[in-house]
C-alpha cells in the first residue's frame, strides 16, 4: 500500500467498526501495525477484528461510547495497558443533516460530544503519553463540511470546522515534543452512509466533483497513513481529499 513506517507500531483508531474506520483498520493491519480498534458498536467491531486477526495479537477491539468521558478514559486505560500508542486516528463521528429550524439543543450537544469533545479529551490523554515518549502522530478525520457551508450542516459542519482549528492548536502545542497533528478533509466517501442517500441524489452530488466520482475509503486511508508516517515534516495541516470539489 504505502510504507508509512508503521511496522510494529501501535495505532488507535476510533469509529473502527465500519466505513472509513474499517478501511483504516485494514490498511494499518496490512502495514504491520498493532491496532486498537475503538467503537460503540461492539459486535461489528469484534467481527472485523476476528475476520482480520484470529490470533488477537494484532487487533484489539475496545468498546466505548465516546460521548461519555469516563468510558473514554477507561477505554484508553485499557489500550495503554495493552501497548503504548504511537498513532491516534480520530475518525468516529456522528453525522446530522438538519435544517437550522429543526435542530434541537440535544442533537447539537450530541454531535459536538462525539465530533469535538471526545477528540479533545482522547487527544489530550494520548498526547500526554506521546509527549513523555517524545514521539506521536495524530490524524483527525474532518470533512469538507467544515471548510465550506452546506444547508443542513450547522452542527456537523461547525463541529468539523472546530476539529480543523483544534488540529492547528494541538499541532502548535505538541510540535516541541515530536508529536505531529494533522487532519484530512474528505468530501463524499463510498460508505454505506453515502449510498443510503439513493442513486439520484448521489449522481447529483457526484456531478459537482471535478473528478466525477466519490472517494473510495482506501483512497482516504492512504492520505491518513501518509500523515501518520514515521518520517514527516508536516504538522498543523489539513489535507483535502475531495476530487477537486473544493480548491483553495
Ligand atoms: N462518509 C463520507 O462521505 C464522509 C465525508 C467526509 C468526512 N467523513 C468523515 O469520515 C469519518 C468516517 O465516516 P464514515 O462514513 O466511515 O462513518 P460511519 O458512520 O460509517 O462510521 C462511524 C463509526 O463511528 C462509530 N461511532 C459513532 N458514534 C460513536 C460513539 N459515540 N462512540 C464510539 N464510536 C462511535 C460508529 O459506530 C461507526 O462505526 C467521520 O469522521 C466522518 O465525519 C465521512
Automatic annotation (TrEMBL):
One of its GO terms (molecular function) is oxidoreductase activity. PROSITE patterns: ADH_SHORT (PS00061). InterPro entries: KR_dom, NAD(P)-bd_dom_sf, Sc_DH/Rdtase_CS, SDR, SDR_fam. Pfam families: adh_short_C2. SMART domains: PKS_KR. SUPFAM superfamilies: NAD(P)-binding Rossmann-fold domains. This is Short-chain dehydrogenase. It comes from Streptomyces noursei.
Amino acid at each position: 500500500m504505502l510504507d508509512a513506517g508503521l511496522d510494529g507500531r501501535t495505532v488507535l483508531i476510533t469509529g473502527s467498526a465500519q466505513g472509513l474506520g474499517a478501511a483504516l483498520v485494514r490498511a494499518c493491519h496490512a502495514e504491520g501495525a498493532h491496532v486498537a480498534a475503538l467503537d460503540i458498536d461492539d459486535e461489528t467491531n469484534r467481527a472485523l477484528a476476528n475476520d482480520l486477526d484470529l490470533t488477537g495479537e494484532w487487533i484489539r477491539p475496545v468498546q466505548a461510547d465516546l460521548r461519555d468521558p469516563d468510558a473514554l478514559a477507561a477505554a484508553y486505560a485499557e489500550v495503554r495497558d495493552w501497548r503504548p500508542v504511537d498513532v491516534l486516528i480520530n475518525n468516529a463521528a456522528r453525522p446530522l443533516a438538519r435544517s437550522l429550524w429543526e435542530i434541537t439543543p440535544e442533537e447539537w450537544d450530541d454531535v459536538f460530544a462525539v465530533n469535538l469533545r471526545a477528540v479533545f479529551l482522547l487527544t489530550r490523554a494520548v498526547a500526554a503519553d506521546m509527549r513523555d515518549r517524545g514521539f506521536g502522530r495524530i490524524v483527525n478525520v474532518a470533512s469538507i463540511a467544515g471548510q465550506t457551508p452546506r444547508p443542513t450542516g450547522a452542527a456537523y459542519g461547525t463541529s468539523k470546522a472546530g476539529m480543523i482549528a483544534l488540529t492547528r492548536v494541538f499541532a502548535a502545542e505538541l510540535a516541541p515534543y515530536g508529536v505531529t497533528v494533522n487532519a484530512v478533509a474528505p468530501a463524499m466517501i463510498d460508505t454505506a452512509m453515502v449510498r443510503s442517500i439513493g442513486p439520484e441524489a448521489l449522481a447529483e452530488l457526484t456531478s459537482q466533483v471535478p473528478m466525477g466520482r466519490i472517494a473510495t475509503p482506501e483512497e482516504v486511508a492512504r492520505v491518513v497513513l501518509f500523515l501518520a508516517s514515521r518520517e514527516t515534516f508536516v504538522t498543523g495541516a489539513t489535507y483535502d481529499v475531495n476530487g477537486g470539489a473544493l480548491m483553495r
